[in-house]
Design goal:
Layout: H1 8-41, H2 46-63, H3 66-74, H4 79-117
Length: 118
């Protein structure tokens, strides 16, 4: 049984998606590193350290599936398997991002409540 192979047009769609994902990942990583450094320079800004780390974690979570989507474009014979691996990895990345979002929201709520109490 032969494996389905995406067409050149479909590979172009994957390439555009991959480039956008790469741009987003690099942007988040650079922002995270800069924010982390700012937080380390000014020790009072503990929040910047946390935000920087969170941006870096999000960037790494989005970086993981890129190899699978690149393999769809550059290899043959395993397009559907690579696609499914990429989607699973991307889903895991979005789960991490959701967890980070929940941590941020809870941190904001706790900070708001502690400001009201004090």
């Amino acid at each position: 049984m032969t494996e389905y192979e995406f067409t050149d047009e479909q590979n172009d769609v994957f390439l555009r998606f991959l480039l956008m994902l790469l741009f987003l990942t690099i942007s988040l990583l650079v922002t995270g590193v800069i924010t982390l450094i700012q937080g380390m320079i000014d020790p009072v800004q503990t929040g910047e350290i946390i935000v920087g780390i969170l941006f870096i974690v999000i960037a790494l979570a989005l970086f993981a599936p890129m190899k699978n989507f690149l393999n769809i474009i550059t290899t043959s014979g395993n397009d559907i398997k690579e696609f499914m691996r990429g989607i699973k990895s991307l889903n895991f990345g979005f789960t991490i991002i959701l967890g980070v979002g929940i941590v941020i929201v809870l941190t904001i709520i706790i900070g708001f409540i502690s400001n009201l109490v004090s």
